[in-house]
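Example record

Each entry pairs one chain with its bound ligand, 2-deoxy-2-amino glucitol-6-phosphate.
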Amino acid sequence: MCGICAGIGHENQIDDVVCGLKKLEYRGYDSSGIAFLKNGEIQAIKSVGQIKNLEKKIDDEVCSHVVIGHTRWATHGSVCEENAHPHISQNGEFAMVHNGIVENFENLKGNLNCNFKSQTDTEVFVNLVEAESGTPLERLMKASRKVVGSFAVALLHKNTNSIFLAKRKSPLMVAVGKDGVFAGSDISVFAGKFDFCYIFEDDEFAIMEEDGVKFFDLNGNQISKKAVDIRDFDFYDEDLNEDFYMLKEIKEQPAALRKTYFKFFSEGLQFDFEAIKKFKSFHFIACGTAYHSCLLGAQFIQQFCKKDCKVSIASEFRYGSNIYSKNCLYVFVSQSGETADTMACASLVKEKGLKVMCVTNVPYCSLNKLADFVLPTFAGREVAVASTKAYTTQVFTLLIFALFLNDKATRLQDELKRFVLNLENLQFNECLLEEISKFKKIFFIGREQDYVSALEGALKLKEIAYLNCLGMPAGELKHGTLALIDPQTLVIAISTQRALKGKMESNIEEIKARGGKVLLISNFKHNVETDFFVELPDFDEMFMPIVSIIPLQQLALNFALKLGYNPDKPRNLAKSVTVE
Ligand code: AGP
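Structure tokens for the complex follow.
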């Protein structure tokens, strides 16, 4: 995780770098810091916690044309100012910000004769650079050769009016404008200021100067790179017009789904469905919420295309004894397109000469670069750590994908359109929240596609309200978990499939018989009394996973707010999980 950015230009860069860090804060918010050149010296300002804490420490008169910055998600060493980046080398020659992990840092540390002030791998890296000989770029290259692991770094040298960049595995991009050069971990840092940017490949290096950027390979040869056009990238909806990004993003879901529909059906999204139809089976691989989208994607393909699908959690697939097949398409779903486990599995599949498709929300992300087929989602930028609109657009995109593979999409176009035009944002009743917030033990149950909503609903509640809850298949309750049901337990039952109504009713009765309380979420009446009921609008069954998750997202958000937590920045998490 962690986000880095760097700016060099004719004007003061402090504000631009801090503003860039705010855009990258989703990558971690344990601490943040900047380092800059001032009268031939390197100075640094750091702070624990969110970037607003750092801002308070930066006086108005602080000014520099050469600045690097970092927002941290702690990997090596606790959350404290000593471990916050930038890290300065022992003799004060270099300052470094780093996203990634130096896996062999303990070995490297043993060979350096330094008094380390932090517990971080980055302090080892920057001292490794200082210990090398040559120009700053040569020293960075030599140090990089010794490093095992991943890095996107920006490096300051106290006697050089430049910023040095290096990349391996972690994302890094740089853009050149008339007032200077800016670099960052993702494209959002360029919003509104640059039309084109350069995306680094592994083991590429660069020198940023006020008037431009030069790129080099690991042998020090200057290389030329092609800039990509970022004018079409959706920066428009980044401003916070609600109290929290999560609320804003929940509310944006109907619009994001409409956008998805129009991209497929009237804006001529280019995608080679004919090539995909040749595959006999599909293997979906992802993490977290994206894994839940995969479960639904697989159900859609099995239902509409009658093709065999497997679904794996990336961190399990990676070390599992998988059976590979060239007739199988490996589909990787990821909002960020940077998740380390997902990326590692995609590389593994590519190395075997097999075909990779990815479904991602961030253009030019690392996953897109290695995929044979890229199916974008159109959620727009998602800032809150808890995924909401990215999830529902993934599910909708995978539904449309499955329909196109079975040539049903055009036939069902009107139905899809009716759905996106009629879906409203669904509110969660405040009084109901009051009632159910008493419960400390919560289970989410459902069958088939409702089971996926149960998993996703439980994940939301865990990650932002820190409640110990569990999502599970309704039919599994009786195989053990029923032992936990008592009058202090709330079971949230999601039931949107009419054919499974009777089965769900039986499960609800079993819970009631043990004194458990039940909140039923459904679009139709059931022949069973429940303690609470949330009525969903009634759409075709294939749309119901999108409909049923919205009140569950709202529930998690309201629960978190009621408990006094910031839903946008849950503890111990980051939006882009670039560690394994
Ligand atoms: C979602 O609410 C979570 N924050 C998390 O599970 C997330 O979906 C997961 O880390 C995968 O991220 P990705 O979609 O960017 O790969």
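Residues 287-290, 334-336, 339, 342, 385-387, 463, 576-577 surround 2-deoxy-2-amino glucitol-6-phosphate (CB under 6 Å).
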